[in-house]
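Input.
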Amino acid sequence: MSAGGDFIPGDQPFDAGPDHPTVFGIRFTPIVSGIALALLGLIGAGALLFYLALPEWERYQQLDAKVKQTESDIQQQQALLQEIDVAKKELEDAKRQRDDVLTLFASEASLDTLLLDLNRQIDARNVDLGRRRSQKLALCPPYIQQNVREFEDKYGELAAKAQLKGFTPNKVLTGVITDSSYGAQVNGKLKRQVVSVELAGNYEQTAAILQSIERLQPLLVIRELTSSLGDKSKNTTIYTGVGDFTRLSPCQPDPKITTKFQLEALLPLGPEEVVKAAPATQPAQTK
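Output.
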């Protein structure tokens, strides 16, 4: 039997499948090629992420941390500036208070006039001495009016005259305070000038003088105050000269009081005096 036409037995079919390349035994079909391309894309994207994006991200984080740190530093500086302003204000207030306190203390200049100031206060209590004496003398019997000097020498003044009888500096107690007499915290920080004072006058004059001392500009402290009634003021009953004794109620001598006290003027130490006083006060504070 003979074959007819163009058909040749044994030839490959005309519509056979495409010939896909093979690499390392892997046949790159469209599906495999697509998968391979996808993997290559992922690898490329990972490489881009690793070599480009990650460094930029780290740089961004570093810059962000630096910005935050700078903002934090600025806030701390602002807070520090505010604290400095508050501290300056408190320092100014403390200086103002210190200056106000220091004005209360005595100064060398004020102590130089202390005796003069005290004499002025005493003299001020004698301004009306003549008037008071005349008023009381007018109430006395004629025989006393005629012998008033003799009467006052024996029984006392009809109108007491305020007098400063003593003003003696006490060199033993004068100096830096180290005896805790004003508290241990004052030791080595203040000094005092001590004067022993003795004055005489009636009760009203004495009270007025002591009150005026408190109003003087220097900070003065009165200590160890004692008062006693004069001997003449204790005997106010006299012989009338007609055989009996009588008490002259409207014509009584003015009772005179003698008052003694220590007047201490307190002064702050200067810087050099503080340094000198430190060794002296240190043992007393450590005991």
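The beta strands are 22-23, 26-27, 163-169, 175-176, 190-201, 220-229, 237-239, 245-247, 257-268.
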